[in-house]
Each structure stands twice: as structure tokens, then as C-alpha cells.
Amino acid sequence: MIQTEPAVHPEVRITAHVFTRAYGTAPGGVWRAPGGLTLLGGNPASPAALAVALPWGVVVALGATDDGSAAFYSTNHHTESFSTGPGTLRSALASGTVPEWARTAASALLTHGRPGTRVLINRELPAAMGLLTGAETACAVELGLRELYATGVRPCDRSPCYAAAQNARPKQALLVSDGIEYLPFDLAAVGLRILIMDVGSAAAAPVRPAGNLAERAASALRAGNFSALGPLLTEAHVRGEPLLDAALDAARDAGALGGLVIGRCGVALVPMAAVPRIRAAVTGRLAGHARRPPRFLTAVAAAQNATRAH
């Protein structure tokens, strides 16, 4: 049989199915947004930021309620569903009774005057990695609200991660400042990858140093010198978490071009050919020190921005 419609991603099907099981009715739609990774900059001292969209993000399903009540369910926190009666979402959010995983979505509903909505959230990376900031959730929910209610929705998140989720393009990174500049970032064409190292650290990333690292990286990418990004990542790294410092040191010793801590992970720019050697080196360096073996993901820039998925 010839397929006449594009295949629906399994995570999208799962999200729609779970929504129906949780709420007893089909969703009004399903939307997906990639996670944004701020590689350099993006703090008050260095507002310009170099960001890239990840292949993993969040899938959200939305449906309107008849009485103005709100309900939230997560495939990642399936024992913590939360709902509020008509007109009570704002006070629930202010009092802290809304679960942490639902706060971004709840804020989006209130900001855009749509508290009467059922929400299901399916995050594609574990929260313990610290890579999904919530900006991707805000982006997907706001897009869903715009289409579900046929109304204008202004972004309530101005972070570089939100910009990456909303504006992702294949083979490109973003320089986010007063506006957005797309930069060449076809890592596959030059044999490079982003290597994410989840070592089981409980420590969050420290504040990055001030400086013009994002602008320097942008100049290198414009010139096609992708390898120059590696040393700039290392220059931005602030040491202080032993497991992550050891992982990044081992990665560089084994051939990584440079790296830093993002969330609770080490993130390095690596030659694809060196990935097996780097994985082995990091695993060996952390043996006996980490509570579990490290987990690895390799990535290039996501090919799809926030969009309706079903």
C-alpha cells in the first residue's frame, strides 16, 4: 500500500493516546517543540547568546474545557496529575500548589487568558539531565493555544532557548541578541557532533563568565570554522563539579575539541570518528567515582521548529 500521509512520530501518537486515557476525550491537537541549548552567553553580563535546537524536546496535547477549569497531566510524572476549578488557577500558581513540571504551562494559560484548558506534557529527556529548561514547553503550549483558540499569542519567554525552539532550522545555529541571526552549523558535513554526557550529577551548571564568547563563536561559524567552537566552549566552562569536570577533561584528552557544563550534563564538540574513544575514556575516568555509568547522546541541530504534530 502506498502511504499518502506523513507518518506520525510515535511520541506524538503516545501523547494523544495518553491524553484520551487521562481525560476521557481526544485532544484538540498535539504540538511539539525542540529543546533549546544555549551554548554560549545568554546571561545578564553577556546577553548575546549562541543557541541551537536539540533533536529532543517536548510534545504537548491540549483540549478546551467547558467550565473554565484547568487540568495538567505528565507522562513523566504520572502520579502527580493536577487540576483546579474555574477561576482558581492563578491563586494555585501563586500559592505554589501547582507542581513544578506544570508551572510553565500554567503560566502560559494565564498569560494568554486561557485557563480553561486540559494539558498533557510529554518531555523527551529526563528532568534530571537539566537540559530542558521549560522554554520548549512554553513554546509548544503557546503555539497550541494560538491554533486551538484561533487567537493571537505573544511569546512570554524571551530566553535564547525559547528562540531556538521557535525558530529552529536544519543545519543552523542562532545568534540571539536584539534579533536573531541564523548561522551555518552543518556539523555532519564536517564530521562533528555535539556529545552530551549525563554522568548522574546532582549539581546545576554554575553561572558562566562574562565576555563576548557568543560573538566570537558566531564569527567562526560565519567563516565555516566550526572546530573553533570547541575551545570557546572550554573557555566558558566554570570548574567546580568534580564529576562533570572529570568527564570533560577525559573527553578532551580523548579527542574532544572542547566542552562545558549545561544543565547537569557535560556538553562537548567532538569529531564523530572519536565518539567511541571518548565514550570509553569518560566511562573509564568516572569508574568508581560516579554512582552509575555515564549515558551519552550525540546530536546535530534539530531539523524542525515548534509545530503542530497531529
List the helices and strands and how they pair.
Blueprint: H1 10-23, E1 29-43, E2 46-64, E3 70-74, E4 82-84, H2 89-95, H3 100-111, E5 117-123, H4 135-148, H5 160-167, E6 172-176, E7 180-184, E8 192-198, H6 213-222, H7 229-236, H8 242-253, E9 258-262, E10 265-271, H9 275-286, E11 295-299, E12 307-308
Helix pairs in contact: 3-4, 4-5, 6-7, 8-9
Describe this structure in words.
With 310 residues, this protein is an alpha+beta fold. It is 31% helix and 27% strand. The protein has 9 helices and 12 strands. Strands 1, 2, 3, 4, 5, 6, 7 and 12 form an 8-stranded mixed β-sheet that branches. A 4-stranded antiparallel β-sheet has the order 9-10-8-11. A hairpin with a 2-residue loop joins strand 9 (258-262) and strand 10. Helix 6 packs antiparallel against helix 7 (229-236).
